[in-house]
Amino acid sequence: MEVKRSENCWDYVSGNLRRSYPVLDVLIIVDGIANQFLFELDTGYDGSLLLPLHVFYELRLNEFEIPRKYWATAETVTGKKIILRTAIAEVQVGSLRFETEIETYEGNNLFLAGLGLIDELKILLNGVEKRLCIIENT
User: Fold this and answer.
1) Which of 22, 41, 65, 87 would be a feasible disulfide site paired with 61, CB 3.0-4.6 Å?
2) What does residue 115 show for φ and ψ, rounded to 5 degrees?
3) Are the beta carbons of 20 and 26 closer than 8 angstroms?
4) What is the tens place of the pLDDT at every residue in 75-91?
């Protein structure tokens, strides 16, 4: 999916059955190799980044997992409990670079940026212009 980007701003993406929604371009850096992904901003997700399981393995994030006893348990809207495999990786959003947790679970196909990532950034959601911008301190 192609999304318009200028400097540290991204246009919202049109949803199939709903309104457009804000997205972020995030580079995930593993062993010095950067992979770029588009994540939907989701304030209902407490974690930082959620990846599809197959992408988690393709990036070899399973080699950087934290001990299983620290993996979070989440509950879906239907009440199903899921275990979130968790790895630590370096990410870059705009020109900001930092380490964060990346999670996945069996059957996941979503790319979500949640509150854990949002807490690391100063974000402007411009609903009128349908743009998300990262504001960097100067």
Assistant:
1) 87
2) -60, -35
3) no
4) 888 898 999 999 999 99
DSSP for residue 135: P
Residue 112 tokens, joined: 């979500």
**Residue 115 above 80 pLDDT?**
yes
- Rounded distance, CA 48 to CA 40, Å? 12
Identity of residue 104: T
Q: What are the residues whose beta carbons fall under 8 Å from the beta carbon of 34, sequence distance 6 or more?
A: 27, 28, 92
Containing 49, the helix (H) or strand (E) segment is strand 49-50
* Nearest CA among 95, 132, 134, 135 for reference residue 11: 132
